Structure formats: C-alpha cells, structure tokens
C-alpha cells in the first residue's frame, strides 16, 4: 500500500499556499512536499505542519531565478558560492520543518551547466547534509518540459551519485518524467530500488491525475512497490484537471477522500 503524500505546489492550489496544509490533511493526507518554501518564514510553515499533524517529506534547494530562466544552479560553473548558500538555507529550513530529504536541481546546458561541476558541488554538500540528517535527492527531468536540463536521465543521476563520492545522494523516481523520457518504469524501479528514496506520480500525457485515463499502469507500479517492500513516500505531483478534491478518486483505495 503506497504511503501517499500531496505536493502542495500543485495540489490544493484553490487555496493560498499556507492554507493548503489544512486542506490536504482534511482529505486524509499525512505527509506533504512542495517545491520551494523560501517565500514564507520557516516558522510559519512549521506551525502549519504541526497544526495539521502533517509530515514534511521533501522540498527543493533554491534553484536560482526561475523568471530569468534558471532551473537549478548545482551544475552551473561560476555559481558555486550561490549554490553553497542555497544549501545552507535549505538545511536550515529542513531543520525547522523536520524534513529528511532535499531535491537538488542541476541547471541548463545553455548556461554552461555540466555534470562535473554538479558532482563537485554534490561532493561538498552531501557530507554537510548527512551531518544534518538530510538526504540529497537527484531527479531526472524530461527534455520536453525541461529542455537542456543537465540531469535528464537515470544514467546521469547514477553517474552523479557515484562521482559525488558520498553515500548520502539518492535517486528521486518521478514516474511522470521517466515515462516522458524513457518508459520501462517497472524495470527501472526494480533495477535501482536500493537508491530510490522518494517517488512522485502524475499521469502522462498532461501531468494530470494518476488515474486510469492516462498511459501509465499505476496499479502495476504500486504492486511492484509493495512486492519490493518500498517504504518511502509516493507523492502526487500533478496538475489537477479541475478542483483538487474532484480528482482524488485515484487515491480513494488508500483512504484519501474529497473533504
Ligand atoms: O517533477 C518536478 O517538476 C519536480 O519534482 C521538481 O522538483 C522540479 O520542478
Ligand atoms: Mg518531480
């Protein structure tokens, strides 16, 4: 049975960000993730988590300036100081939010982003995160939505994990991105399960609800997670077609309901 989390950057966006925590809990979620918390005081977010009885399971290290086209800075040469500062801020938020995982984004090749720079930055960040009890996550993102993104394949993520020289860098398995870029979802999970520490789901195409109207066989994926004893979180990271609560039917078997 998957342990379901809600991505609050995408779900419950009928509400202001800080009100999404209570909305998710009301529907039965016990855990949440989001992309970036930095526009909000960490203590305010911690209060919303505690007030709702929710666990924070993942968020992202700051990615640079989205409006100027940044999609992470971990692999961008010349921005190492900014990267280190972003890691320190993220670890500070993670401490307050009691969050055990941080996704580190790479950046785009048009900005010179490259795997060697990313590996060196990860080698610096991973021991620091480990000391703080936080795992660093690498998520391959598909080239349709993120053209030029440097960490675009499982093979690249595996190379980075090895090159980081640390046992504190893991794979974030986003079924949506993997289906968009390569397919072979079940075999990929089977092959790399020991280093997969977080799963995200959405339908393909459209990145909407992970239900039976789209092309991924989620029942088979969930069955595999059970078979292999995956004990991490599975987060709904999708764009609801309409109201979030109207599209929660896919999660009903696990106690999530419209409320
Ligand atoms: O899949 C995604 O888009 C996210 O998990 C992410 O961190 C990058 O936007
Ligand atoms: Mg994702």
From TrEMBL:
Coiled coil: none annotated. The keyword Cell membrane does not apply. Transmembrane segments: none annotated. Residues 21-250 form the Xylose isomerase-like TIM barrel domain. Keywords: Isomerase. InterPro entries: HPT_OtnI_isomerases (IPR053398), HyI-like (IPR026040), Sugar_Epim/Isomerase (IPR050417), Xyl_isomerase-like_sf (IPR036237), Xyl_isomerase-like_TIM-brl (IPR013022). Belongs to the hyi family. PANTHER family: HYDROXYPYRUVATE ISOMERASE-RELATED, ISOMERASE. This is TIM barrel protein.
